[in-house]
Specification:
With about 220 residues, this protein is α/β, with parallel strands linked by helices. It contains eight helices and five strands. It has one domain (about 5-200): Aminopeptidase, CATH 3.40.630.10. Helix content is about 35%, strand content about 15%. The longest helix has 17 residues, at about 145-160.
Length: about 220
């Protein structure tokens, strides 16, 4: 098995810490959506934002007041107003990369939302020592979605860099609002995955040792 370049490993760690620092609850992930979109744009991967690929009739548990509060917070933290307008008020990103050669359409999905948990402020806590502890009170990436997002961004970059050795199409789904089972149906019913031959999903597993992958 080919090892990931050190640069990508380093980038994954940095991305995970950046996202960990700015956690957002389901349907309010505007900063995270912007972070993902900027990276896909840099990689020249075509993408759609939440308002374009989600089936709005299938959206559950979305609080408009919470969304507006999150939009204001995102604006104050540097997300352009023009970008917010493009989302149409819905978070998440769906990217597609075509190698230009016949082959299967492989979709890979990660979730991007955090959970309503207060992160420890103990000086011995890893993220406190590392300077990337959650800056948003009572919100934390304690379920690994910061890592999921960082991993899928690295996978997307690896695919672009190795496209000459690949075939078919790749789809990258950064799903909003996984917690509470609120966002998956909106993605599924939106049509973006209808032509996928394979859908790969993943999660961080504490039972796996370094270098191991568990298949479910």
């Amino acid at each position: 098995m080919q090892e990931l370049p050190l640069q990508l490993v380093t980038q994954m760690i940095a991305d995970r810490r950046t996202i960990h620092k700015r956690p957002e609850l389901g349907w309010t992930e505007f900063e995270t959506t912007y972070f993902i979109a900027k990276r896909l744009e840099k990689l020249q991967i075509e993408f759609q934002l939440g308002g374009d690929f989600l089936d709005r009739a299938s959206v559950h548990g979305r609080d408009e007041q919470e969304v507006q509060t999150a939009i204001q917070r995102a604006l104050e933290h540097g997300v352009p107003k023009t970008f917010i307008k493009k989302t149409q008020g819905y978070t998440g990103v769906a990217g597609i990369f075509d190698t230009g050669r016949p082959g299967p359409t492989i979709a890979i999905r990660a979730d991007i939302d955090a959970v309503p948990v207060q992160e420890s402020q103990d000086e011995a806590h890893e993220s406190v020592m590392g300077g990337y502890c959650s800056e948003i009170p009572m919100v934390m990436h304690s379920c690994g979605h910061d890592a999921h997002t960082a991993i899928l961004l690295a996978v997307a970059e690896w695919i672009v860099e190795n496209q000459d050795n690949l075939c078919g199409k790749f789809k990258f789904v950064f799903q909003p609002s996984e917690e509470g089972v609120r966002g998956g149906l909106a993605v599924a019913n939106g049509g973006f995955l209808d032509d996928a031959d394979v859908l790969l999903c993943f999660h961080i597993g504490t039972k796996c040792k370094l270098g191991e992958v568990g298949i479910c």
